[in-house]
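Progress report, Aim 2. The chain analyzed during this reporting quarter is listed below.
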Amino acid sequence: MATQNSLPATAASTEQSTQPAVLGHEIRNKVLLSLRPQAQEFLRERLVTRPIAVGEVIFADGAPVTHAVFPHEGVISYMAEMEDGRSVEKASIGLEGFVGFALVMGGGNAVGRTVVQVAGNASWLSIDDLNAAHERFVSVACNSLHTADQRVTRWLLQTHDRVQGDAFVLTQEALSQVLGLRRATVSGICSGLFDGGIINYHRGHVTIRDRTALEGRTCECYRRIFETSLLK
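Predicted structure tokens for the chain:
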């Protein structure tokens, strides 16, 4: 694995994060293995892989999530701090998943503490490289394979995931530019969603009224994101 990206320093991993990447390590993480070969090669050049030790804190509670972490071996736990000071495991991640779901949803801070319970090794991928991979291999593929309606609903769902509440500002002009669609096409799709009671739309102000119906109209690109996350 290449070492272009520096790893974030955390409370328990500052010393370990200065270690060089483990070169040539076999990719065993199932999320990474599920990607097509071109995407794997793109990420392989950007991943930084190193050992993870028992007790190492990957992200402290409230810390910025700057990287996605893909375990190849070992177990990482999401811990919740109780009022009496005890720590309780909420969930655990191994080679079947990854740590850093907030990055997929647009960035954010860690909710709870993530700590290594079983030693192994893992690969770090920066938010910039994750965004670049998403744009290159997900958005482009979606734009070429799916209908305008599916692409608009995907974007509305992703925006809904990244805001507080059900309302946000998103003009049809901006949406048409992002998706490379004609303004009239986006307007027609939004009108159909409005008539179906799925969204409210007025002068660039969008309110999601029926998220389930919106999910039913989107493409598999959106659902795949959740199939590799804790929030499935």
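The longest strand covers residues 67-81. The CA atoms of residues 44 and 222 lie 23 Å apart. These observations will guide the mutagenesis work planned for the next reporting period.
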